[in-house]
Specification:
26 helices, alpha/beta, nine-stranded mixed beta sheet, 47% helix, 3 domains, Aminopeptidase
Amino acid sequence: MRKYTEEEIIQAIKSGKTIHGIFEDKSLEIKIKEYVPYICTAIHAGNNLREELSKISLFTPEERKKEEDLYTNELISSFPVTLTALDSRFEYDLNRNQKKCVYEKAWGKKVYNRKLTKEERAVSLDKHARFYRILNALVFAIKEKFENCLIIDIHSFNWQTRLKESAPVFDIRTLCPKKIRRLNLLEVFEKKLKEIRLPNIITTVDKDTISKETGYMVSYVSENLSNTTIIPLGIKKIYMDELTGDSYPLVIENLRNGLFHAVLATAAHFTSRFENINISKESLLPKDLDPAVIKVDTALGKLAGQIDTLQYVNPINLQQEKKKFLERRRYEPKFHYRQLRIDPYEFREKLYKLPVSQISDPPLRELYRSVIDSFAVKIELLTHIGTPSFLYNSLRYYGEPSSLDIANAKFLLHAAKTSDDMAEEQNIDAEQIKAECEIAAKNLNIECNVILSSKIVANAMVDGAKRTLLINKKSKVSRKELTSLIYHELGVHMTTTINARKQPLKVFIIGLPQNTYTQEGLAIMWEYLSNSLNLDRLRQLALRVLAVEMMIKGMSFSTVFHTLNNDYRLSVDAAFTLTTRVFRGGGFTKDYLYLSGFRDIINLARKRDISPLLTGKVSIEFIKTLDQLIERKIVVAPDNTNIYNKKKISSDNQILDYLVSCIK
C-alpha cells in the first residue's frame, strides 16, 4: 500500500482526489474511493507501538490486543470513505484529549517501566493531533460538497472477561448531539442493526449499556465540526476469541455485510433529511468497479466458459435409443453422453482459489461467492453424468418439487378445457419454424443465427456462446406453439444472452445461482403476455413437475412414459420427449422449475418492476442487488424488454388469467 505524508493526504483531500494508502509512519490508513456524505472510522483498530516504547512497555503485545478493537478495520473496509488508526491506544488514545491520551496506567497497571520523556510524549501527541487535522480536512471537504457530514465511529468491547453474556451485540452510544434524535437516525440505525443475521448468535441492540462516557471523538466533532453528526457504535467481541486474539472469519463476514447495509440505510436517511442533498442510497456507494471484482470476474469467466450443462447432459444416441424403445415399450434406454473435457478436480481447485475475499463491495462479494459455490455443485453434477450420483447432484443444484408445486400441477391437470384450448394442427415444420424465427428476430431487433439441429431434445434451444437459436429438425408445431417458442426462446433466452454481453462483468453471461429457475419463469411469463400461452401449455408444464416427481420416487423410464401416454393422454412422441428430458444424465430435475418459476415471476411482477431480471443470466434472489448495481451504473439497464409492460401483467383470456391467479 502506498505511503503518504500529511501534506500529500491533505492536498489530495483539498483537490477532491481519491486516495488509498497509509501515513508514512504507518500510524493511520485513509481511503477515499469516492466523496460521499458519510465517513466510517475505527480509531482503536491498531496494535502498532513504536520501537522505543515497545522496549519499555510492561504490556506484552498479547495483553495490548485484549484491550484494543481488533478487526474493526475489517468491519468498515467496504465503505467508500474510511479513516483507521493503526497505532495502539497504549501509545496514544484517540478517544481521549491531549492531556489524557498518553497512558501512565491502563486497566490498573503501569504501562511503562519508567516515565516517558517530554520528547517521547511529544511524538505521540503529534500523532494524535495529526489524526484530527486529517479528520478536519476530510469533513470540511465533504461539507463543501454536501453541506452536512455523518460519521459512524466503530468500537468493540470485551464480554468474556468482563461482562455477562447478556450484554447486547451492538451498543449504540447516544450521548451525542441532540440533532441525532431530531433526525431519527438512531431509530433507523437500530432497526437495521437488528436485521443482521449472525451464525449461532442472536442479534441484540441496546443503547448506552456498556459505556455512559462521552469519548473525545464525540466531543471534538460536536465542538469543532459544524453540520457534522457522529454516532459511536460498540460491538461485542463475538467475532473473536478474546483470550487468544483468534478471529471467527464467518462472523466477521456476516458483521461486515450487515454493517454495510445498516450504515448505508442510516446515511441515506441522514441525507434525506436535508433538502439540499436528497440522494438515493445507491449514490452513497462508489460507481467505479473495484479492481478486485474485475480480477475475479475475468478469471471466473475463463473457468466457467468451459461448462455447458446441456451440451453434456443431452444424449448423443437419442434417435437410436428412441427407435429401440418404441419397438419394445418396456425397454429401458441406455443413453450415452459426451466425455467431460475438463478436469473437475483441477476446476474446483481453481474455483476456490479465486480471491473473492479481496472484493471490498459486500453485494458483489456475496454475489461472486454464491456463483462460485453454485459452480462447484454444477461441476459435481457434470462429473457424474450417466451414474446414480447424477440425480443426487441434480437435487442439490436444481432442487425438487415441493408439495405445493405438485398441488399446483394437479390443479392445472384437472382444469376443464375451453374453446380457446382446442388443439391446433401441428403443421409448421422445422424449416418453416426457422424462417419465421429469423423474421421474428429481425422484428424484435435481435441479432442472432437460427439453424437446424438433430442434437437437441426440445423443439428449440438457445446456444448462448454462439448466439444461435437451434431448431430441432424433427419439430412440428402449431401456430400458437410457434408464437410461444418465439417469445420464449428469442424474447427471453436470446434477449438475456445479448444483454449479458453488454455488461462490463462476465458473471452475467456465466449465470447467477438459480438463473435457470428465473430464466424459465420469465420465458413462460413472456408466452403468457404474448397471448400464446394456453391451458395445454400449462398442462405440459404441470406434467413436467409430475414426471420429475415420479422419477425421484424411483419409477423406471418405461413406467413414467406409459403413465404420461396412457393416464395423461400425451402422444407417443410427446411422452417419450418429456420422459427423456427428466431421465437424461441419470435424473435431471430441472424441468419442475418452469411452473414454479412462472408462478414466482408473475407474483413478483405484480409487486414491482422486474425488468432488471433481463440484464443477463440473473436470478430473483439477487434482484435488489441488481437494482443497486443499475443505479450505480455498474450494470447496464436492459433497453430491449420486448412485450413487457409492468402495468399490465395479464393476457387477453380471462379464464386463463383466473387459472394463473390460482397457482400458489
